[in-house]
Amino acid sequence: MAQEVEFVAKVSKQKLGINERLRIDFVMNQDGDNFNPPDFSMFNVVGGPNQSVSNSWINGVRSYKKTYSYWLAPKKRGVFSISQATIFIDGNAYKTSPIRIEVTAAVEVPKDPNDPNYLASQNIHLVAEVSNTSPYLNEAITVVYKLYISHKIAVDNVNEIDTPRYNDFWSQSIDTKNQKVQSGTYNGEDYRYVVYKKAVLYPQKTGKLDIEPLSLDISLRVPTNRRDIFGSVLMSRANKTVSAGRKTINVKALPEAGKPLDFTGAVGDFSFDVSTSKTELDATESLQLKVGVKGNGNLKLFKLPKVSLPSSLEVYEPEHEEKVKTNLSGMQGSISDSYTVVPQYKGKYPIPSISFSYFDLKTESYKRLSSEEIVINVLNGPSSNSASNDTSISVGNNKQAVVLNSDQFAFIKTSTNFSEINQSYFFKTKLFWSLLLLPFLAIPLAIVIRRKKAVRAADVYGNRIRKADKLARKYLKGAKKSLGQKEAFYIALEKALHNYLKAKLHIETNDLSKDKITELLLERNVEAEVIKDFNSILESCELARYTPIDIVTMREDYEKAGKTIALIDKQAR
Description:
Pfam family, one: BatD
Shape: elongated
Oligomer: single chain
CATH class of the largest domain: Mainly Beta
Transmembrane segments: 431-449
Number of helices: 8
Strand content: 35-45%
Distance between the termini: 66 Å
CATH topology of the largest domain: Immunoglobulin-like
Helix content: 10-25%
Keywords: Membrane, Transmembrane, Transmembrane helix
Low-confidence stretches: 386-404
InterPro entries: BatD
Structural class: alpha+beta
Radius of gyration: 38 Å
Protein name: Protein BatD
Number of strands: 32
CATH architecture of the largest domain: Sandwich
């Protein structure tokens, strides 16, 4: 099928000051003849007409565009109409629609359409799209940053200069690698755009919370009204800083009406399950009691209900497990606490029903899920009434009895069996000759050990690795002691990293900026990926003061810090 003919007029703005300039483009998607521009009677033509042609093939589809461009200066204030332009394509006449232009009084800073910086500001935009500006506390929202780029300009490089911290939010960045350039519209005009950054946020406070802006520094090329000897448009280089702007989120508090007493902050859509690895066993054998929640919601941000068991069942501290993935819909997966339970006596022990409460976003109400009662049948073992025997000791009303063995003092000997000590001389005994020859036998062993030390001393690369590992353990010793205590751990970790850099790079604390650290480490031939890991750990130390962190993440940061310090010490020259 033949491509439908399009012939349109586009202006750089529809409202301008009398001291500004206006650019108008007449664009067609098929080649035409006898182009007839409109009457620019209310404007002075200060540039043009410039003609440009774009012809490309994408996936076997031909794309053609021909443009006539003019630069206009208004003659006076008022509201004017730029009339129709005409072109003949395949013998048929096509016309553009009239365009209304408003000319106002002079502006303080005239905006010249030929100015590269002005062109950049008009043709590149960074937009933050928030999925929900009025969420509940702990309800997931997404922030998607889209970079819109006009077809008129070309981008050379993008550098992130200010990253939002998301204070008062639990945040998780979503991978945006290998994002394809897509087509879209911005303010009614055709643009290309790419999804630059995505993040999932869970508000941790109610009221109005601000999302800090993302700022990018972009190197680009913009067209000028000049052409080379071949007729191609000359491009001018420019730098533009764009910002997504600050967003305000109004976080609603969860309703107080109907809130269960055991509610711990779960928000989303969940299922609840309590199970045991077995229900029949012998005394002193163990079973696993698992309390789990599965579904969509703030899985990492609430606590599971605790179990209450009979005193005759010995219960150990639970092992917490998380299998959670985070995408644009929020957290999805499951969390669980696994208890090890050891019965002490024969009998049947009921595990009472356990309840879990959460706030359902679909119905905007609280829901309670309860488990069924589970009976543990202990088949073989001592009877629980043994506590009444004379050979037992009671250790408390709610504690199990400790049964004493009747032969508990059998290890004490009540009779002796002494024997005479045989006296003999030490001289010329086997022990004497062994001790005499031992130094001579040790000489070959000493030679072997010395050679191994020499080989190890010559191994410069290996010694450097061992020294780096030892140094990492030295600096991170304080952080390791604070594992499990979020603020103390990250303060100690940040202090350890700073002390290491001060000792390694011979710099003071006031010089420990991100750019300075990167510059000094690059000078010492440290790989860029290692520097990036080091800076990311420092950022984690800062972010940890505002976001919930579990012990698994702390261990990962600790191990990553140790590896990074070791790599820096090994690579630095």
